[in-house]
Amino acid sequence: MIDLYSVTIDCAQPYELASWWSKATGYPVEEGAGPEDEEVAVQTEREPYLLFIRVPEGKSVKNRLHLDVVSRDGRTRDEEVERLLELGATIHEDHRKPDGTGWVTMLDPAGNEFCVCRSEAERASSK
To answer: What HEC string does 57-77 produce?
Structure first.
């Protein structure tokens, strides 16, 4: 058996992307990190944490692994999508359905896909 320790994201500017994800998640960038660092972590309340590593090549294809996120602050999926748009994310694909189910695939500033899903309260209310 194994435990998940970190989710690693390759990027050109680890500190900048970690800072964006810090704003998006509300979790802090590791203390002492700076723009010249090759690796920068966003510390979560429990493992896995997010680790951003500098690589020379750019993103060229769809991610084979992505994050699914939900609001932990009581916002709905749609409110969370709007907040993330304000932070600089973009909508890649909108999979919301008229009955309120579905998700939104977004791109972070480096073009990495992630999905915004319905909150726990939204999922519970549709049962």
So the answer is: CCCCCCCCCCEEECCCCCCCH
Parallel/antiparallel/unpaired status of strands 49-54 and 104-107: unpaired
Q: Write b or e for each residue in 110-122: b if 16 or more Cβ atoms lie within 10 A of its Cβ, otherwise e.
A: bebbbbbbbbeeb
Which of the two residues, 81 and 60, has the higher pLDDT score?
81
Pairing verdict, β 6-11 and 49-54: parallel
Task: Give me the phi and psi of 49, to 5 degrees please.
Answer: -100, 170
Indicate the domain borders of the chain: 1-58, 65-127
According to the CATH classification, is domain 1-58 in 3.30.720?
Answer: yes
Please, how many CA atoms are within 13 Å of residue 36, restricted to the half-sphere of its CB? 0
Tell me: domain 65-127, CATH 3.10.180.10, correct? yes
pTM: 0.91
End-to-end CA distance of the chain: 33
